[in-house]
Amino acid sequence: MFFEMKAVTVQFGGLTAVNNLDLSVEDKQIFSLIGPNGAGKTTVLNTISRFYQPIRGQIVFEGKNILALKPHQVIRAGIARSFQNVELFANMTVLDNLRTGLHPLLKSGVFSSSLRLPGFVKEEKEVLKKAEEILEVLEIRDIAQEVVKNLPFGLQKMVDIARALMVKPKLLLLDEPVAGMNPAETERLGEFFRKLRDEWGVTVFMIEHDMSLVMEISDRIAVLDFGMKIAEGLPTEIQTHPAVIEAYLGERDESA
Ligand SMILES: Nc1ncnc2c1ncn2[C@@H]1O[C@H](COP(=O)(O)OP(=O)(O)OP(=O)(O)O)[C@@H](O)[C@H]1O
């Protein structure tokens, strides 16, 4: 299996945020993790990225136990992520933000970069080429020199995803990628995720509340409620799954 979580449990003090979770994701698919607010979705992502340590369970990526790795080593292994609230350098340009996405992989250290040694210059050229290629595919090349804080939120989210792609990940983790986007931007991004899967061979693991996007582009969906997986299957199966309908209706009742 490409990516697997086995019996993973994550606790915060007395609270069990993720409870005995099994998940399997196949190579080159779009996998969505959905569920009501507070279900534990972001905790799952933060556990895969190694920000949180589970008290039990295993996470295996391409046969490797990633619980033995540090966050930057997870990136080197081929897993990159975007953030729910966009964690970019607001005062830097789009291009410079993309450059920072590559830092976990760069060979040149501060020493060679400050002296601009040949290896560093070559690396810099490659970085620039890669950044421009990603911006081109996202159709946002025109904003390369813009300062991030001046961009609308939808574009900032795209830049955040572009930065995650700089390491050429095999598995891309996305935390609510279309939150705050308008329908046109959402559609554009949905198309882009398909392109990532079909043309770049990237597996997309996404947390998302926009159900029409999730149902449209996911190959498989898993549903969390109170930290437990209550359903998994094809979009058509999830849409009609009684436990899923119940979980979402329950949420609506609470907010009413
Ligand atoms: N760092 C933390 N410390 C303590 N409790 C936490 C922490 N992170 C999350 N929790 C709790 O764990 C539970 C799951 O939260 P999580 O953010 O993973 O849910 P979610 O499904 O991503 O929700 P949302 O859709 O609202 O983003 C919640 O009860 C939350 O309050």
TrEMBL record:
Highest taxon in the source lineage: Bacteria
Keyword terms of this UniProt record: ATP-binding, Nucleotide-binding, Transport
SMART domains given in the database record: AAA
GO molecular function: ATP binding
Keyword NADP: no
InterPro entries, sorted: AAA+_ATPase, ABC_AA/LPS_Transport, ABC_transporter-like_ATP-bd, BCA_ABC_TP_C, P-loop_NTPase
Pfam families found in the cross-reference section: ABC_tran, BCA_ABC_TP_C
Residue span(s) of domain ABC transporter: 3-251
Entries under PANTHER family matching the protein: CONSERVED COMPONENT OF ABC TRANSPORTER FOR NATURAL AMINO ACIDS-RELATED
Name of the protein in its database record: ABC transporter ATP-binding protein
